[in-house]
Design brief:
477 residues; Rossmann fold; 2 domains; six-stranded mixed beta sheet; 16 helices; binds glutamic acid
Length: 477
């Protein structure tokens, strides 16, 4: 669902939010425009012979800012893909990478296609052809432009893209770093698939570590027992909701999908809904919740945390005033239009903005890219050494244990946990957690530290734009 016709387009919406932040900054003349505009958008139309007929596809790759290279951002496969959307998403990538200190400029790609209309072999042909068109113009390249999954794409497409690039660049030793989000056996990294959802969880945990911020939303306490509504049970929404339910005690009371919404005050089991969707193709017949055909209505239900994790523009001027959630975390890119953002801010709703909330994906993409360039799995050198050192401590404690008799002993669970050296997944999660905490703190410093900044989105833009501006200044611009 796009924003209604009486509202600005997605790109204009991003620019409006950008302008609101820039008005509070003191940038040298002209730099504001240089940062805001999208540097280039390449449009390609190519034909693929399928089922005896040539099908023409349209694709885009936008480069928003090259203040750092490579530029980074996903490739989306959807019928709704258009230039305005790809440019808006590329701009968000610039600010997102700056905010979480992933050393990339912003880029985004898209292909107008409904992946459900084609079988696996056909999708491979189309994806490889699109990758070929981009790679031959260096719009896929380990040192210049590194795509990743987005809506409608995943590990499978990334593996085809990586292989296509390798076929075209047989002597490039860093070929695997040309794209991230690959399967583990094709140069991927542990924890990339869950990364964006995991990042949403870490973002919420960090928010709830600051009672002052929780108070600003009108809530109290911790994540435990909070009622959550999630829109979109795709990769991001599913992982976020599942982790919040299983590890933080949240109650998922509503799940909105393309064929309606499920609601149950007592909570809905996220994994079982996901299994149901895989088996039945939708949520409409799911037994353990009430089904509403008009799914978007459930966005307006009473809850503590609303997680839009599907498309842009779903919270807009037509429904913003009726949204009850005191806290919204934008797991999707651009789910709240600029107009809706104004309405929600004036109601006192706290919004954890997209450029921060969903940055977990690109953060772990960064780790994958580094892994590919260093040609070694994280933890391979240190793990056993770490275990050996921990063993020394445990041996020593056990010696004391024998001496003290029954008065004191090491708990077996502690021993097991402590003796295990960190594997790649643990290291990735630790790096992601650290990134999400630090980025949140940089936003909240601005949010609470400046009288003229009253929301986290403006704070996020200020931090991100300042970083991009610094990098331009360092280049002498
Ligand atoms: N498509 C994701 C995003 O919007 C991931 C981008 C990446 O990993 O480069 O952030």
């Amino acid at each position: 669902m796009a924003a209604p016709a009486n509202e600005p387009t997605f790109r204009e919406s991003v620019d409006l939010m950008f302008n609101r932040a820039v008005a509070l900054m003191d940038l040298p003349p002209g730099l504001e425009e240089k940062i805001r505009v999208c540097n280039s958008t390449y449009t390609v139309r190519f034909g693929v012979r399928l089922r005896g007929k040539i099908h023409t596809f349209t694709g885009y790759r936008s480069v928003h800012s090259e203040h750092m290279e490579p530029v980074k951002g996903g490739i989306r496969f959807a019928m709704s893909v258009n230039q305005d959307e790809v440019e808006a998403l590329a701009a968000l990538m610039t600010y997102k990478c700056a905010l979480v200190e992933a050393p990339f400029g912003g880029s985004k790609g898209g292909l107008c296609i409904n992946p459900r209309d084609y079988d696996e072999h056909e999708m491979e042909q189309v994806t490889r052809r699109f990758a070929y068109e981009l790679a031959k113009r260096d719009l896929i390249n380990p040192s210049q432009n590194v795509p990743a999954p987005d809506m409608g794409t995943g590990e499978r497409e990334m593996a085809w893209i990586a292989d296509q690039y390798r076929r075209m660049n047989t002597t490039d030793i860093n070929a695997a770093a040309c794209v991230t989000g690959k399967p583990i056996h094709a140069g991927g990294i542990q924890g990339r698939t869950e990364a964006t959802g995991r990042g949403v969880q870490y973002a919420l945990r960090e928010f709830f570590r600051h009672p002052e911020d929780v108070k600003a939303s009108g809530m109290t306490g911790t994540l435990d027992g909070k009622r959550v509504i999630v829109q979109g049970l795709g990769n991001v929404g599913f992982h976020a909701a599942k982790f919040l339910q299983e590890e933080d005690g949240c109650k998922i009371v509503g799940i909105i999908e393309y064929d309606g919404a499920l609601y149950n005050e007592d909570g809905i089991d996220v994994q079982s809904v996901r299994d149901w969707i895989v088996k039945h193709g939708g949520v409409s017949s799911y037994p353990d919740a009430t089904h509403t055909a008009e799914g978007a209505d459930v966005l307006e239900h009473d809850c503590d945390i609303l997680i839009p994790a599907a498309l842009e523009g779903v919270i807009n001027l037509s429904n913003a005033a009726r949204i009850k959630a005191p806290l919204i975390i934008e797991a999707a890119n651009g789910p709240i239009t600029a107009g809706a953002d104004d309405v929600l801010r004036s109601k006192g709703t706290v919004i954890i903005p997209d450029m921060y909330a969903n940055a977990g994906g690109v953060t772990v993409s960064y780790f994958e890219w580094v892994k590919n360039l260093s040609h070694i799995r994280f933890g391979r050198m240190q793990r056993r050494q770490e275990e050996a050192r921990h063993q020394l401590v445990v041996d020593e404690l056990e010696r004391l244990d024998r001496y003290l008799g029954d008065a004191w002993s090491l708990r077996p669970e502690f021993k097991k946990k402590y003796l295990r050296g960190a594997d790649e997944l643990e290291l990735v999660r630790s790096g992601l957690d650290d990134t999400m905490r630090i980025a949140y703190q940089s936003m909240r410093e601005v949010w609470h530290g400046r009288e003229d900044v009253t929301d986290l989105r403006t704070a996020a833009y200020l931090v991100a734009i300042e970083k991009v501006a610094k990098s331009y200044r360092a280049k002498g611009l």
